Amino acid sequence: MPFFEAIRLALSQIRAQKLKSFFTLLGVTIGVMFLIAVVSIVEGMGRYMEKDLVGKLIGVNTFDLRHRPNINIGDVDEAEWRSWRTRPRITEDDIQPVVEVLPEGTRWSMQAEDRINAETRFARPRWVRAYSVEGQYFEIKNMALTSGRMFSPQEYERGDPVLVIGPDVRKYFFPGLDPIGRELKIKGLPYTVIGVTEAQGSALGISFDQFVVSPYKARLHRYLNQRKGVIDAITIQAPSAAAMQPIMERVRQVMRTRHRLHPSQPDNFSLQTSESALAFWNKLKHYLVIAGIALPAVGLLVGAIVIMNIMLVAVAERTHEIGIRKSLGARRRDILAQFLIESATLSTVGAGMGIALGIGLAQLVAAVSPLPATVAPWSIIVGVSLGAGVGIAAGVYPASRASLLDPVVALRAE
Question: Which tens digits make up the pLDDT trace of 312-322?
């Protein structure tokens, strides 16, 4: 029997026996549905973490030099926390030696940061995230303005009391007003707003737009780090992905020399990239994907057993048909191929239904919960392959029994 004719016959069997076909396909459909849904949610979470969370905190081809990691996704034991607390802080004196070893085309900035209370005469006081920066901070963060301007070189040098603010700060402290040229008070001192950035968005309910930025030499930095000369980070952006590792090694050697570390001693500072920040998540994601494939396998196993039983019943019901086909010249492999194709078609149809339901379930979860969902193309290929594979595996025994029937005995069957 031709391949497409066998598929047509299998589809006609599904149409003719709808209820039996439904229960035949149910196990495969459920297994593939959960495979697609779980993998889609895990993939969505992965992209969310990489692009919306860590990707916005640490830019492209960028790493932070800090005394300890700024982003901790995963468990950190008490001993490690204690070791971080005893590390020397990054200071203003570290900036020049680090900048001197950076190759041409490399961007850098330094910053002090902390939460601080701000107020205006238009709104009640509120905590905001404050940054005192120097260098190419806005270029590295890829921040554009919706109004106003950036700091001038003279304002950086003099430490003028000027601010660039985020959209959330503008909405709260200057409701319905143009904030450019208006004052925002921090620790009782007035700072003039000269620019408002584009929205950076949010992640896990945390807004990236509730911030103010001042030149480092402005008085604000004294309130962000109480210890004189201490800064929170030096951020370095390589000109390309290939240049990242060599630049990190240069910075590592400078800091090891400055901290007088022996070759056997580990680093007592952190060089954090988006990849290092996501190391724990990527490990967890790997196990989640495996679980997302392994758990639906139970449904696929049940589906395989059901398909095998149904195909055995089909062989018994169509014994006379098999006898006629053999008497007309059908070979053993023709009968074997017919039933295998029918079995594979049944399970593939079930897999297709499972894929559609899985995508729908993932989108539903994304709509009613904070969990994002992104359908991975490879999971669809795996779903179809598993469906066809389950059908073939489940159909081997029934097809083999059908192909071994004696034509004379089969013709006697009613």
Answer: 666 666 666 66
Calpha distance 130→137 (Å, rounded): 14
Q: What does the alpha-carbon distance between residue 51 and residue 374 come to, in Å, rounded to a whole number? A: 13
Pairing of strands 62-66, 211-215: unpaired
Q: Closest by alpha carbon to 63, among 221, 286, 243?
A: 243
Of 206, 68, 52, the C-alpha closest to 129 is 206
pLDDT at 66 over 60: yes
pLDDT in tens, 25-42: 777 788 788 888 877 877
Structure-token match 């961007």, residue found = 107
Give Cβ neighbours of residue 414 (< 8 Å, ≥ 6 apart). Answer: 320
Q: How far is CA 79 from the centre of its chain?
A: 30
Q: Kind of pairing, strands 211-215 and 123-135? A: parallel
> Any idea which of 65-79, 253-267, 340-354 has the lowest mean pLDDT?
65-79
Between the CA of residue 252 and those of 231, 259, 270, what are the distances in Å?
17, 10, 9
Distances (CA, A) of 216 to 116, 229, 297, 298, 381: 15, 11, 57, 59, 53
